Amino acid sequence: MKLYTGNLSPYSAKVRMQIYAMGITDIEFDLPVAEFFSGKFAKRSPIGRIPVLVVDEGVIPESEVIAEYLDELYPEKAMVGTTLKERADVRVISRIADVYLMNNIFMCLGQLMPDKRSEAVVELLMGQVKRGIGALENHLGDGDFAVGNTLTRADCTLVPALYMCQGSMPRLGVDNPIIGTTKVAAYWEKIQKNEFAAKIMAEMEKGMQDRLDGTEAKRVKEAIEKAKQQA
Ligand SMILES: N[C@@H](CCC(=O)N[C@@H](CS)C(=O)NCC(=O)O)C(=O)O
Fold this sequence. Notes:
By secondary structure, the protein is α+β, with helices and mostly antiparallel strands. It contains nine helices and four strands. Helices cover 59% and strands 6% of the residues. β1, α1 and β2 (28-30) form a beta-alpha-beta unit. The chain is globular and about 55 Å long. Residues 9-11, 48-51, 62-64, 106 line the site of glutathione (GSH).
């Protein structure tokens, strides 16, 4: 199997965290750089976004669907909890992180440049994130992890989402909404010490560093030139 993934992509980081935590070693990580950065990735996967899992029968897009596929492929290592209610809780928290946090922050990233920013867009989307953080505050349990006392898919989705709340929202001129919460703040402090959480956060940091210092741009330019020569 192959996972099309990028260091900086929070949706990819979520799937990588699950792969590391499940101890899956037969998935190669790759990204067709020229295609992805020139808007031609839809040739590989019609949704045109990463992550994408490539399996023998074809491609599987959407991080949440890939996460469930991996759980079903390796049921003995599945990360969705044990009891029916626990499994529902994992799905609810994963959806809060994905739909209400990550998606809204991600859509707002086009507003990062203060001189080109639409404050109305920022207000709309960041308002949704703050509401999502409120929902998370009400749904987090009292155990060591997001749901109960074991690492689940809920943690894999929450880590990149909270990482973005902390890192990206201040860059949009909005306070980090984790500050001022009780359960979310305590959870966030604790989960960052988990080895798999720490690993994907380091990868996202590296992706950000590559973007800021021009390494990514250089890699993209070289890949596009190579693709042109091969065409
Ligand atoms: N709902 C999707 C979102 C994936 C997504 O938006 N990925 C971003 C990178 S983090 C992407 O590929 N963006 C490229 C684009 O929008 O063209 C998922 O959960 O996998």
